[in-house]
């Protein structure tokens, strides 16, 4: 969100009888701002990547490769295309710091959960990177909000908020954050590195807590800040529930049928593999959509295709999350697919880990509330551990814990297991492997 020089003065003189938008609408130096779905900055990403020494250099410095929807490439495009409007821009806020600014009546800081998702921060130093900012646009440092690495209260609600919405005047406001870092808290994973989470939604995500930064040979996935000053990792897979639903609908099945087939068919699918790139994939990067079948998998083989899409998604998560550190002993599965026992069983077998459903509605909002409670209690001298706070607020859903059988694990994890074959199929389909896997069908 891009502001001109009038924004802070307008915030200080708001009339509580009138809504926000009527009073601040002339404070924007950019009338329309792109949202996370915008991917028009490929050129700017390439320019930033070149300036920062390649994809791995960008990822090591900022936590992610140059990413089209991130603030850095977006700001660079705005500066290039609208230099006069950029010159009039005094503040550039992320959505979370913009909303926090509205609450406290002045420009608010941003936290590392959101700030590390910009390609602008040095995640090791915990501050904005001069090198990254220079690669984006001139004079950027003075336009960015303060970056906070650890949660803290940034002020009290403004008189406008107290009068218009009925808040107490002494209400403290915590630094704002993003949905993924808040979900980490809402799922009780802060400080718990050996339990990871999988969200089976429109896009599938694999994420967890990271106490210390790990060496990254590649550049897949993202590293964001966590509420306690540490880190969280996140790997996103664009082909999530729509891919599963498409395969289900091919054969006119229900989700109960989908789960039953997964529980009745043999692990390993007799070597039949699918790469379900119904949409261009983020992880691994596959710009050309399309289904790739290997091992004699035929389109009319309903059980084979059901098992193939489930195994493919679980194996992709396993193979592309190895950089995050030791494998988890337990995995929490949330979002729409978390009720599907067949999917949970496949995940358990591939990861060799216990798996359970953990459906917390609005886990990001719950995590934000927990972060506010934690900051408030600590400010009152009532220090509380994150785990204790979580246990006092959230009752886990009473669901069966799924544990994998030894034989099933061996099919995936063995020296010649399906994971190795899947990796070979993936590399071949993406143009990295020389040898064509057997019975490949495109």
Write the layout of secondary structure elements.
Elements: E1 2-3, H1 7-12, H2 20-24, H3 42-51, H4 55-62, H5 71-81, H6 83-87, E2 91-92, H7 95-104, E3 110-111, H8 112-115, E4 121-122, E5 127-128, H9 130-136, E6 147-148, E7 153-156, H10 159-165, E8 172-174, H11 179-186, E9 195-200, E10 204-210, E11 222-225, E12 231-237, H12 241-250, H13 255-264, E13 273-277, E14 290-294, H14 302-319, E15 330-334, H15 341-351, E16 354-357, H16 363-379, H17 386-393, H18 406-413, H19 418-429
Parallel strand pairs: 3-6, 9-15, 15-16
Antiparallel strand pairs: 1-2, 4-5, 7-8, 9-10, 10-12, 11-12, 13-14
What does it look like?
The protein has 442 residues and is an alpha+beta fold. It is 40% helix and 14% strand. It contains 19 helices and 16 strands. A six-stranded mixed sheet has the order 11-12-10-9-15-16, sandwiched between helices. A two-stranded antiparallel sheet has the order 1-2. β15 (330-334), α15 and β16 (354-357) form a beta-alpha-beta unit. α11 crosses α16. The longest helix has 18 residues, at 302-319. The two termini are 44 Å apart.
Strand content: 5-15%
Q: How many DSSP-defined strands?
A: 16
CA-atom Rg in angstroms: 24 Å
Distance, first to last CA: 44 Å
Determine the mean pLDDT: 92
Sheet with the most strands, sense and barrel status = 6 strands, mixed
Q: What is the count of DSSP helices, taking H or I runs of 4+ residues? A: 19
Structural class estimated from helices and strands: alpha+beta
């Amino acid at each position: 969100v891009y502001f001109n020089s009038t924004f802070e003065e307008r915030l200080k003189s708001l009339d509580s009888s009138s809504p926000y938008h009527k009073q601040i609408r002339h404070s924007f130096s950019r009338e329309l701002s792109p949202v996370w779905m915008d991917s028009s900055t490929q050129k700017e990403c390439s320019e930033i990547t070149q300036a920062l020494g390649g994809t791995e250099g960008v990822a090591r410095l900022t936590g992610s490769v140059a990413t089209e929807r991130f603030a850095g490439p977006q700001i660079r495009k705005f500066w290039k295309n609208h230099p006069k409007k950029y010159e009039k821009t005094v503040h550039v806020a992320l959505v979370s710091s913009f909303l926090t600014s509205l609450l406290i009546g002045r420009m608010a800081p941003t936290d590392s959960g959101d700030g590390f998702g910009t390609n602008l921060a040095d995640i090791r130093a915990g501050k904005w990177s001069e090198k990254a900012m220079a690669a984006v646009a001139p004079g950027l440092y003075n336009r960015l909000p303060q970056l906070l690495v650890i949660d803290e209260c940034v002020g009290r609600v403004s008189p406008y908020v107290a009068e218009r919405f009925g808040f107490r005047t002494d209400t403290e406001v915590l630094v704002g954050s993003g949905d993924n870092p808040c979900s980490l808290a809402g799922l009780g994973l802060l400080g718990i590195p050996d339990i990871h989470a999988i969200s089976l939604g429109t896009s599938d995500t694999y994420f967890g807590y990271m106490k210390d930064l790990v060496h990254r040979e590649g550049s897949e996935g993202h590293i964001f800040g966590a509420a306690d000053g540490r880190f969280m990792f996140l790997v996103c897979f664009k082909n999530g529930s729509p891919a599963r639903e498409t395969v289900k609908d091919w054969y006119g099945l229900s989700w109960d049928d989908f789960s039953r087939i997964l529980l009745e068919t043999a692990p390993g699918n007799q070597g039949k593999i699918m790469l379900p790139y119904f949409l261009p994939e983020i992880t691994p990067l596959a710009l050309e959509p399309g289904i790739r079948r290997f091992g004699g998998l035929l389109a009319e083989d309903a059980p084979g295709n059901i098992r193939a899409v489930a195994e493919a998604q679980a194996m992709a998560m396993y193979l592309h999350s190895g950089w995050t550190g030791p494998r988890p002993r337990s995995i929490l599965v949330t979002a729409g697919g978390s009720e599907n026992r067949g999917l949970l069983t496949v995940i358990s077998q591939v990861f060799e880990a216990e798996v359970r459903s953990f459906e917390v509605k609005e886990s990001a909002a719950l995590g934000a509330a927990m972060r506010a409670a934690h900051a408030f209690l600590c400010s009152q001298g009532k220090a509380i551990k994150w785990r204790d706070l979580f246990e006092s607020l959230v009752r886990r859903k009473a669901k069966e814990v799924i544990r994998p059988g030894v034989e099933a694990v061996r099919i995936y994890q063995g020296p010649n297991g399906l994971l190795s074959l899947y990796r070979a199929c993936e590399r071949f389909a993406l143009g990295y492997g020389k040898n064509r896997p057997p019975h490949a069908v495109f």
